[in-house]
Amino acid sequence: MAGRGRPRGFDADAALDRAIEVFWRQGYEGASLSDLTDAMGINRTSMYAAFGNKEELFRRAVARYALADMAYAREALTQPTAYAVIETFLRANADAITRADRPPGCLSVQGGLAEGGENGHIAKFLADSRLAGEQALAVRLAEAVASGDLPADTDPVALARYVMVVSEGNAVHAAAGADRRALHAAVDIALRAVPASGAEDAD
């Protein structure tokens, strides 16, 4: 049954996509309920009925963003070598955060930068979300160490953190106006720090 106050023809996914853009551009704290409902084309009653309160809406927005806009991160993990995993991720990230049809930067970085609540729980929620991605990358890099694709003395956790620092830093610069070419130039330099494969070291 449609939620009370929901207008006929209400498309929850389309409305959520518009909410994502508001949160992306203005951050969680900066996005008012009026900003959100105006962009979504619904009233507050409809928003509460379909998505719950503002925080619940934001969590739904981040989940949808992770599923669609961050699909490249999951695809990168399937690459055959650690170098290819890292390069694919960083290149795709640079492209994603400079898309012409999206706000510059990254929702998971921009969304919580200005969050100033009593305990910063939105910022923590976003940090935890990013940490989950970092941990997934660390697991993949640990597999590369075990298989000899990376040198045995490689710290997969530290390497994964380094990769995420690069991607998150690029997101901040993209939001500040850096173009795609500049971000890929930073990726070029970052890739020089990726350890040579264990097989190459053995030669």
TrEMBL record:
Q: Does the keyword Cytoplasm apply?
A: no
Q: Known InterPro entries for this protein?
A: DNA-bd_HTH_TetR-type_CS, Homeodomain-like_sf, HTH_TetR, Tet_transcr_reg_TetR-rel_C_sf, TetR_C
- A Pfam family per the record: TetR_C_13
Q: Does the keyword Transcription apply?
A: yes
Instruction: Return the annotated DNA-binding positions.
Output: 32-51
Q: Which SUPFAM superfamilies match?
A: Homeodomain-like, Tetracyclin repressor-like, C-terminal domain
Going by the UniProt record, its keywords in alphabetical order are: DNA-binding, Transcription, Transcription regulation
HTH tetR-type domain ranges (all copies): 9-69
Q: Which PROSITE patterns match?
A: HTH_TETR_1, HTH_TETR_2
| Stated name of the protein | TetR/AcrR family transcriptional regulator
Q: Which organism is it from?
A: Streptomyces siamensis
